[in-house]
Amino acid sequence: MTRETTASYRWAVIGTGGMAHLFVADARHGFGGRFVAVCSRRQASARAFADRHGIEHAYADLDAMLERDDIDVVYIASPHTLHLPQALAAMQAGKAVLVEKPATLNAAQTRLLYDTAERCQVFCAEALWTRFSPVYQSILTDLRAGRIGPLRHCHASFGFAGPLDAAHRLNAMELAGGALLDIGIYPLLLPLDLFGSPVDIDGSVTLADCGVDRSADLAFNYAGGVRATLSYSLDFPLPTQASVSGDGGWVELKAPWFATNAARWQVGAAPVSQQHYPLTGRGWHYQFSAVNRALAAGLQQCEEHSWADSLALAAVMDRIRKRWGPDYGASLEGS
Known about the structure:
14 strands, Rossmann fold, Dihydrodipicolinate Reductase, domain 2, alpha/beta
């Protein structure tokens, strides 16, 4: 597949929060599409977002936006609890969907998401930008090819001092707040990509008084003594670095490791070397371009982050929350 496609897909964005601003701005570094519409709960917010990003159409009515024939793809950047209903509405209207991570609240909902995409014969993908990064994919390729020998261990962390305001979405049970779905999802990626789903999971999770999870230290255990140690926190900063060790060396991914542009390699007896990788923009545009490529090829999912990948991630998060919480309740978690 060549880098560019002659097609230009017309995108809409649902949501006008920070993630929506970052994605739409960075998409200008990508190719194959452009944003033509935005939808928010309030017309004023939609109009302000549209004016800021040079988008023509602004809506406070999702159904009205989805009725447009000149929208091909909908990017969903709303709160977690709205992802599934909005994605289903978009796909049932015949639109391709890129839904911000986490795609849904659990594995059952995620299966419903992709079953609907298959039934409606439309494209659907979870917007987990790390998996679309050419730097991350290049490092994975080297590791899988044996650059540091058989792999034995990995560590990944992501943490910052998050908001304490009870009204903030990260602290709201009714919005599926907490650390795991928002930032813990990143450390889980590395062992899943290197070793697959763990045999068992040890560790501890700290819950806030309001019920959401604030931090965790987890160990993923695999056959043959292979192990992954993972940390994430909304209570305090963490280095946000990652490392992988094998029988023949190690690699350390520069912070923030999930969007890195450099890594330190120690291979065999050779001195430690620093490798830099080209990275344009902020990194979100790679998934924007990947979706446009997939659409031009007539695909319903992306190779970089397939439906199976998304389901495996959701299943591991279910295992963690089933053991330690939080339990959002049937009203949120039901499919």
